[in-house]
Request: fold
Amino acid sequence: MAVVKLFGTWLSPYVYRVIWALKLKGIPYEYIEEDFSNKSPLLLQYNPIHKKIPVLLHDGKPICESTVILRYIDEIWPQNPLLPADPYDRAVALFWIKFADDKSHLLSKLYRTEGEEQEAVVKEWLEMLKAMEEHALIGGKRFFGGDEINMVDIAFCMVAHWLGLIEDFAGLKIFEPHKFPRVSSWIQNFKSVPVIKDNLPDTDKMLGLLKHRREMLRSKSN
Amino acid sequence: MAVVKLFGTWLSPYVYRVIWALKLKGIPYEYIEEDFSNKSPLLLQYNPIHKKIPVLLHDGKPICESTVILRYIDEIWPQNPLLPADPYDRAVALFWIKFADDKSHLLSKLYRTEGEEQEAVVKEWLEMLKAMEEHALIGGKRFFGGDEINMVDIAFCMVAHWLGLIEDFAGLKIFEPHKFPRVSSWIQNFKSVPVIKDNLPDTDKMLGLLKHRREMLRSKSN
Reply:
């Protein structure tokens, strides 16, 4: 049987995308925790362009970029498909996956900015939530693709879990459930899926690390 | 027969990606030129999230985002495939397509910036060219995927044609062929493909428009 290895860090939403996909497919894998501050020679060898996690190693061959890894996993292991079978529905799913991916930078921007700059980031978050609410989650669906979780839900994981953490950390309130009722229901549905619920980073540990990082950044800039 | 329509503007590299893919597949289509300064109600209806071209309309259903459109075209019309058949090779191709797409913003940044800010953009261009030269075009290939043009070549069209135009316009020299011999050969190979050669925006018209836009931007900022 082919050997599957995943290089990640315990708090990255990009890594959780891959963990969930592998678990939804029932694929056993070896997980290798990378050190942010001291990247391993293997990581640099497998992802020489971006030098970033996640990297999936399948039969000794590396695949980089979380959304590319998700597509690969779905093609190699077709059970519990993560994309719709119909080509048009698949194109719509890929549109939203790209949308989610293109907005991912907004997460770290939230706690790395202040004042007017942060206000602009918050505005972008609200536009993103509005697009999800008014265009992607219409029609009374439990998930983006209908009754089952798929790759679009996984791609939007930042909104379901990481945003709330950053809000707590930064003392912001961006996501107000009554303003985005469909997104709010979707978050509940998403986090009630056993594979998701049972595989999320520890909140206290994450808040502790964010505080540590902020102090590091501030001491550097002083 | 299904009706295929393409909403675009005559100078956009994102639109040319779609034009080339349709022509490589031999798919007849109706082209609708959009006005940058006065977007049509149809465009806003078909792409309510980004309000941008290109939009492909197939059997009345809209598909947005050039790389999503390319995937859709390749699935609907399988002749002259634009992605490798092997799942791992396909993942590598998708990695580079995402890489090219994530760098696309560097094009307009080149002529919208000055001084130190422009120097940072030039540095990013050089890093991109280095990655193409040292990682993507190795092994004596004519194109990114081997002997035939594929979706990766199409995705990198900015480098093959638009960069040179912006260099002329901005009085910059970023791409020096002797520093990137593989990229240089690839550009020649790419632009010798009849579908590419016969379908490129007019250089003089493009330079004229860029000058006009710059004047507009300057008069606004004064």
User: Anything to note?
Assistant: Chain B has eleven helices and four strands. The beta strands of chain B are 4-8, 30-33, 55-58, 61-64. The interface with chain A takes residues 48-49, 58, 61, 63-65, 67-69, 71-72, 75-76, 87-88, 90-92, 94-95, 98-99, 131, 135 of chain B (CB under 8 Å).
